[in-house]
Specification:
The chain has a four-stranded mixed beta sheet, covered by helices on one side. 21% of the residues lie in helices and 30% in strands. The protein is an alpha+beta fold. It is built from two helices and four strands. It is elongated, with a radius of gyration of 22 Å.
Length: 101
């Protein structure tokens, strides 16, 4: 989905209709530090723009502070590539075995 919650603000004249909708991603940190979004969360934030909100709770372990950011995709995120798998060629496996004999 790319978010944790959907919030609807009902229209005062017709509560069945929403005046505003927020797609909310929530992140919590024990202290204050970097916040990461998954690729899916970031792409969803880019797509939904002002309808996407990031709620970050810093200092969860002591004195929580909630920070609400509308359209967080505009903040200048840096992509981080993490290693998912390590690959080695079959020739290296075979030659490694031959060296042991």
């Amino acid at each position: 989905r790319g978010f944790d919650l959907i919030s609807h603000l009902p229209h005062p004249d017709d509560p069945a209709q929403a005046m505003a909708v927020r797609f909310i991603e929530v992140k919590g940190r024990a202290g204050i530090g970097e916040v990461a979004l998954s690729a899916n969360e970031y792409k969803t934030a880019q797509r939904l723009k002002d309808d996407y909100w990031l709620y970050v709770v810093f200092n969860c372990a002591s004195k929580p502070e909630v920070h609400c950011v509308q359209n967080p995709a505009r903040l200048g995120w840096k992509p981080i590539v993490k290693v998912e798998h390590y690959h080695v060629g079959a020739d290296q496996i075979i030659s490694s075995e031959e060296h042991r004999q």
